[in-house]
């Protein structure tokens, strides 16, 4: 398993332009595999987890890009697989969900880590406790649970403390995952970096160099793997984020425009 625990110590602000990297993809389509995060990367951030808008042409453009790369395009997300799938239906992509804790390869086979029996009770207690914090949303993702404070930032301290407590109760098989106005408890045994490595061990990804594209702390794990393997990493950010990514792009909208251009090329 990949060490994705390092944060700022080995970080540097990405300075290259992600646009050049993505244009390179079509010059040598047999060389690259592209891994896309979803929220904040392919899709704009919204006030609530269910409030996102998936642009009409996004799935179609990803499918076209994927065809140009002989299928070597995958989604790597913090969302649960069924939720992420319905965002792109009827298009179906190889995908890793829950920050790498579940993964469906090109063949359709699904790998999942299994939670302990107490996890359902833990999620119920958390939802009950969070009901006292107006605006805090608890997102039950099956093998993981997220507490969102985007609509109630004043409760950040309480949410952080509660999630640390529940993580301890869940035991060492689980870890805390911080993100954009969210704290999650997720299985510890996998990361987005592990998911990327697993994809690269299989067709049609095997033998290709990875390009990992994301916008958040959880994506740093796949950036490290992409960098280590000689690929590229692109962080979507409108500020100089603390990142190990080797390049940046300004926004999800900018990325979608590039994908559309590559899909039509
Ligand atoms: O790995 P990702 O695909 O980027 O998913 C990360 C988390 O995304 C979602 O939460 C984030 O997006 C919401 C909608 O824009 C936003 O309201 C929230 O504040 C963000 O944290 C999703 O709800 C989580 O389950 C994912 O882990």
From TrEMBL:
Instruction: Return the InterPro entries for the record.
Output: HAD-like_sf, HAD-SF_hydro_IIB, HAD_sf, OTSB-like, Trehalose_PPase
UniProt keyword terms in alphabetical order: Hydrolase, Magnesium, Metal-binding
Q: Which domain of life is it from?
A: Bacteria
The EC number(s) this enzyme carries: 3.1.3.12
SUPFAM superfamilies documented for this protein: HAD-like
- A GO BP annotation: trehalose biosynthetic process
Top EC class of this enzyme: hydrolase
Cofactor (UniProt): Mg(2+)
Any one GO molecular function term: trehalose-phosphatase activity
Which reaction(s) does the protein catalyse, per the Swiss-Prot or TrEMBL entry?
alpha,alpha-trehalose 6-phosphate + H2O = alpha,alpha-trehalose + phosphate
Pathway given for this chain reads: Glycan biosynthesis; trehalose biosynthesis
| Signal peptide (residue range) | none
Function description: Removes the phosphate from trehalose 6-phosphate to produce free trehalose.
Question: What family is this protein classified in?
Answer: Belongs to the trehalose phosphatase family.
Query: Which protein, by its recorded name, is this?
Result: Trehalose 6-phosphate phosphatase
Originating organism: Rhizobium soli
């Amino acid at each position: 398993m990949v060490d994705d625990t390092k944060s700022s110590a080995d970080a540097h602000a990405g300075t290259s332009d992600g646009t050049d990297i993505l244009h390179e993809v079509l010059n040598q389509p047999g060389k690259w595999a592209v891994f896309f995060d979803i929220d904040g990367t392919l899709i704009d951030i919204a006030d609530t987890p269910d409030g996102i808008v998936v642009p009409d042409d996004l799935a179609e453009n990803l499918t076209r890009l994927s065809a140009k790369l002989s299928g070597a395009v995958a989604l790597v997300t913090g969302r649960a697989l069924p939720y992420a799938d319905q965002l792109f239906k009827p298009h179906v992509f190889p995908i890793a969900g829950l920050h790498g804790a579940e993964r469906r390869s090109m063949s359709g086979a699904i790998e999942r880590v299994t939670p302990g029996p107490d996890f359902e009770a833990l999620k119920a207690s958390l939802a009950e406790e969070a009901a006292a914090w107006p605006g805090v949303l608890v997102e039950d993702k099956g093998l993981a649970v997220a507490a969102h404070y985007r609509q109630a930032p004043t409760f950040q301290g309480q949410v952080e403390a509660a999630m640390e407590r529940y993580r301890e109760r869940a035991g060492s098989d689980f870890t805390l995952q911080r993100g954009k106005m969210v704290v999650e408890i997720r299985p510890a045994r996998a990361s987005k970096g592990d998911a990327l490595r697993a994809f690269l061990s299989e067709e049609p990804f095997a033998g290709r160099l990875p390009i990992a594209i994301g916008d958040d702390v959880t994506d740093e794990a796949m950036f490290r793997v992409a960098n280590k393997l000689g690929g590229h990493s692109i962080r979507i950010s409108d500020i100089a984020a603390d990142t190990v990514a080797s390049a940046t792009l300004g926004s999800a909208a900018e990325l979608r425009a590039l994908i559309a251009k590559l899909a039509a090329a």
